[in-house]
Amino acid sequence: MKTRMTDLFGCRYPIQCGGMLWIAEPSLAAAISNAGALGNLTSGNYNSADDLRAAIDDTRRLTDKPFIVNITTMPSIRLPVELLQDFFRVCCEKKVTALEIAGAPVDRFLGPEFIPMAKEAGVKVLHKVGTVKHAVHAQKVGYDAVTIAGFEEGGFPHMDNVSTLVLVPRVVSEVDIPVLAAGGMANGRSLAAALSLGADGIMMATRFLATRESGVHANIHKVLMEKKENDTSLNLQSLLSAFGLQVRALSNTVMRQVAEVEQKGGDLTDLLPLISGERAKAVWKEGNAEEAMLTIGQSVGLIEDIPGVDELIRRMIEEARQALDEAVGLLSDDEGALPRKNSA
Ligand SMILES: Cc1cc2nc3c(=O)[nH]c(=O)nc-3n(C[C@H](O)[C@H](O)[C@H](O)COP(=O)(O)O)c2cc1C
Question: What are the record keywords, sorted (predicted)?
Answer without folding.
Answer: Flavoprotein, FMN, Monooxygenase, Oxidoreductase
